[in-house]
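Quick log. Single chain, no ligands specified.
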Amino acid sequence: MKPASANSYEEKRFPVFLKCLCSAVIVLSFSCFLAAHSIGAEQPIRLGVLAKRGYQKAVKRWSPLAQYLSQRTGLKTVIVPLSFSQVPAYVADNKIDLILANQKFYVTLKKKYGIQALATVINSRGGPFMGGVIFTKKGNFSGSLNDIKGKRLGIVSFGSGGGFLIQAYDLLQKGINVLRDTDIKPLEGQDYVVYAVLNGAVDLGFVRTGQLESMAGEQKITLKDFQVLFPQHHPDFPLLCSTTQLWPAWPLAATGQLSANKAARIKNALLALPAGSRAARTAKIKGFAPPGDYSPVVRALAAIGETN
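-> predicted structure:
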């Protein structure tokens, strides 16, 4: 027979044991619920955007489009701003489901990873097309093609369609190989290319059409301080332009991991985007058109080579 004191101790200990056991069961049950909920939860659609003028501006510009897609498709969509170097890495590592980037990225990533264009941007000025601008500070250029040789050339990146490739290809067809004939200075953004020309850090610059007008509209520069070289006038294209060709504007493409059903829903929503909507106004676009023909970009890359 156990002493009374031992019985009293076990009687006190047993309720404590029950409390601990119940607490453990509750915690375990809640953890299982959270895990199950996490597994079953719909992951957001990640829309990668090439941030050619910086991360903050990209998020501010394109977030209303993500909100529109979320509401229109029922698929929560978030913006992932990307630098030039991040775009191919994020596609390769399946970190994004959609990509809005320039023409060179599209044709190279389509070849390598099978991304597919869903729509082409309709710019607020220039429509679904873009070109390139070759410019210098006013009074610094004679007008001769040969005057480009040996000059310091500011670009945003070798990976830029409108900030390098289209101008380089245009000049190559006129006998100037900028990779060989100029001293190229890659800079951190297209705004910086414009400032570098203005401040004399480089002799001339490449930017996409609309860049100079946008900065002038933001009162960051005065257009009369610059000279656009080899000006071209294209029908129904009101922007300053140096290139003899226009290419389709940026495509918005689906990566290989996005299901066909979701891609179709997003494509339909893009093509239905009203020109006067908040998403379109904030992005400074008029909407989206069916995908354009990007074969001229393929030819340009073949002629110039796969520069980084």
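Residues 45-125+249-304 form a domain with the D-Maltodextrin-Binding Protein; domain 2 fold (CATH 3.40.190.10).
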